Amino acid sequence: MKKIAVVGVCESIGREFLAFLADGGCKIEDVAALEPKAPLGTMASFGEEEDIDVEALEKFDFSEAEVAIFAASEEISRRYAPKAAEKGCKVIDCSGYFFADTDIPMIVAGVNDEKLQEAKKGIVSIPSAIVTQILLPLKAADEMYRIKRLIVSTYTSTSAYGKEGMDELFDQTRKIFMNESLVDNQKVFEKQIAFNVIPQVEEFIGEETKCEWAINAETKKVLNRDIKVHANCAFIPAFIGNAAYVNVECEQEVDVDKVREQMKKTNGVIVFDKNVKGGYVTLNDVQGEIEVYVSRLRQDASIDNGFSFWSAADNLRFGMAGNAFKIMQEWLKKNN
Question: For the chain, which terminus, N or C, has the lower number of CB atoms within 10 Å?
Fold first, then answer.
């Protein structure tokens, strides 16, 4: 049996993907855990009870793998993903490097799985976690009423910047409680992240940030049409998870009760929406979960044919690793 290769197992998404493989019953000997320039003896967790040897990416022969998940940087994907595909290995890229390549489809599992057939280069990409957790709940609504505009306000945890971002939040919080100085403590974020909200996620591209641009561009690519999207993104002092308020405008008259019914039937979506105190889902509730949660679903009376909802998900497990895992399962199933 050919292996499943995971590139970037020392990063957050790679670790979560290994957990999915272990939970799914994959044997440790059928997995190749890869990391650039990994020293001999490097280990990574494989499930709760096992550790797996980490191999050096530079020395791995991708002809030994049936599928490879690239959960490392854009530079690593640029250098090694095409080489893996040339060896006949199916590549799922999580870095976003291949966005502009029209021969490499961008897929949200459960939304546009049919695009796997268009992977002419043997490579598919996945969008940012926030796009996955927005579009999956909207699949049925788009089919019924055809969405023409989205306004998205996101609340992003520090895990978007990996361990370094989470460590900076922890360190700043500790120093504040210990009455220590925060001078020179902003290494990852542009402003203090502890007990603060920062209206910038990633670097600026003109008037918008890279994250705001990506939500717009990736939504268009996944849905394969020129839908109107306006995004506003902010970092909040949380360790894991993404949340978003989404305002939706459709071409046809919307029945919110039908939207709710269809969301409940969508695999990977859980609707928890009660108009009482605490009758909604927060980031603390979704850590470690593999579904996206929807709350505060209601009519948007400010426009014709509009509704809005609150979305919360674990960005690492659901949005990135979970999406890649479902795509891998579907891709392998189509070829068996």
Answer: C
**Which domain, by its residues, includes 52?**
3-126+321-334
Domain total of the chain: 2
- Same domain, yes or no: 79 and 210: no
Residues 60 and 146 in one domain: no
Same domain, 199 and 86: no
For every residue of 104-173, DSSP letters joined together read S-B--TTTSGGGGGG-TTSEEE---HHHHHHHHHHHHHHHHH-EEEEEEEEEE-GGGGHHHHHHHHHHHH
What's the pTM value of the predicted model, to 2 decimals? 0.93
Q: What is the pLDDT of residues 134-171, one digit of tens each?
A: 999 999 999 999 999 999 999 999 999 988 999 999 99
Q: What number of other Cβ atoms are within 10 A of residue 83's Cβ?
A: 13
